[in-house]
Amino acid sequence: MSPRKAPALHGTDLSLREHLVATAERLIAERGTTGLTVRAIAREAGVADGVLYNHFADKEELLALAVRAHVRTVGRGMGALPSPGHGSVRENLRAHVLYGIAFHKAVLPAFAGLIDRPKVLDAFAAGGVPGEDWRDRLRGYLQGEVELGRLAADARVDAAVAMIVGVCHETVLTGLLYGSSDSQEVTVEFVDDLVGVVLDGVGGARA
């Protein structure tokens, strides 16, 4: 005879651990992580507070798993990125930049309540799969174009990645820190300028 399912799991195929992660993920997507407590997660999940500690080492582990799940859900919903060798490098890189900005707009608010919780951030980083993060995919794209000869063999891939990721962070974080929605609006001209600097250099330099 199979064990009885907890009442909170009726109508689902999830384990209680999966249900708790899914509940925390949904709360993070709706409210962010600021002020999110074990009690709030347990209440939303329909279980007693102490049940969480039967399935996770601590609340930091649960939060890290939920944030990672949120990031993956956002990524899956944003569609595919261009692959090396298809289309033009300029248009492909433009698509990567727009993707990166939209992705950061969707996920960075979830980290706002974790700035002073390094244990959660460390567990989040440890829970990733190599190559799955957008930064890694951007680097892989550029390196793929180098290998195909569509970018120079001595292209500074890591510097280009740092520049693009930095712009995405700055664009979104400025709005979060200063409460300005205007700073999060990115124009077509700005994206084109960024791609141009990455591919062609800043230009105009004089000795």
TrEMBL record:
Alphabetized UniProt keyword annotations: DNA-binding, Transcription, Transcription regulation
Question: HTH tetR-type domain location, by residue?
Answer: 14-74
Q: Name one GO molecular function term.
A: transcription cis-regulatory region binding
DNA-binding segment(s): 37-56
PANTHER family on file: HTH-TYPE TRANSCRIPTIONAL REGULATOR BETI, HTH-TYPE TRANSCRIPTIONAL REGULATOR RUTR
Q: What is the protein name given in its UniProt record?
A: AcrR family transcriptional regulator
Q: What's the source species' lineage? A: Bacteria, Bacillati, Actinomycetota, Actinomycetes, Streptosporangiales
